[in-house]
Amino acid sequence: MAAMEITVLLQRAHAGDQEALNNVIPLVYDELKKLAGAHLRREGKARPLETTALVYEAFLRLADGQHPSYENRAHFYGIASRLMRQVLVDIARSRAAEKRSAMQEGPATEVSELGRQPDESLLVIDDALTRLTRTDPLQAQLIEMRFFGGMTAEESATVLSMSVHVVRRDPRLGQACLHREMAR
């Protein structure tokens, strides 16, 4: 299916056509699995989900939410990637809470029964991105699009209606801010 047909289906999903979203998912599934795989590789050995489960969880959030006006496939993938990251952050926060609760309520041996522990760096990165979003939303968005969404500078520039030069320059500034935020 041509990229334009996928974009039309995404625009119909924005207009509230649930069937269009159901029709587009099989067409973009392979790319969503690649995005999910990239997110899970960042998790290292403590993978909380398999690739297919992460795609499924992101799809549930897509199906449950209000759809923005998707500019194109790249914009859709950026949003899907953000949802995948949020799924992983929610799981990491939940596991961290379970770990704290188990340590407060029972003997230390119960903690090992919780299985894989969350990658603390994911929570640190998420908190830093949240703080960066408050001070410079554009830089945070560009970092998300590039490093979590896997979008090229050209794709990000198209979605944001910006010059490619600015899109290439600003993430470097954002990365410096993010490193400073993570150091806190």
Provide a quick synopsis of the model.
This protein has helices at residues 3-14, 18-43, 51-64, 73-105, 120-135, 137-148, 153-160, 164-183. The chain has 184 residues and is an all-alpha fold.
Descriptive overview:
- This protein has 184 residues and is mainly α.
- It folds into 2 domains: 1-114, Rna Polymerase Sigma Factor, Chain: A (Orthogonal Bundle); 119-184, Arc Repressor Mutant, subunit A (Orthogonal Bundle).
- 77% of the residues lie in helices and 0% in strands.
- The chain is built from 8 helices and no strands.
- It has helices at residues 3-14, 18-43, 51-64, 73-105, 120-135, 137-148, 153-160, 164-183.
- Helix 2 packs across helix 4, helix 3 crosses helix 4 (73-105) and helix 6 (137-148) crosses helix 8.
- The longest helix has 33 residues, at 73-105.
- Mean pLDDT is 77; it is low at 107-118.
Overall 3D shape: globular
Largest sheet: none
* Poorly predicted residue ranges: 107-118
The overall number of domains is: 2
Query: If helices are DSSP runs of H or I spanning 4 or more residues, what is the number of helices?
Result: 8
Number of strands: 0
Q: In the CATH scheme, what's the topology name of the largest domain?
A: Rna Polymerase Sigma Factor, Chain: A
Architecture per CATH nomenclature, i.e. the level-2 architecture of the largest domain: Orthogonal Bundle
Helix/strand order: HHHHHHHH
> What is the CATH class name of the largest domain?
Mainly Alpha
Mean pLDDT: 77
The portion of residues assigned to helices is over 70%
Through-space gap between termini: 47 Å
Give the percentage of residues in beta strands. Answer: under 5%
What is the radius of gyration computed over CA atoms, rounded to a whole number of angstroms? Answer: 18 Å
Structure classification: mainly alpha
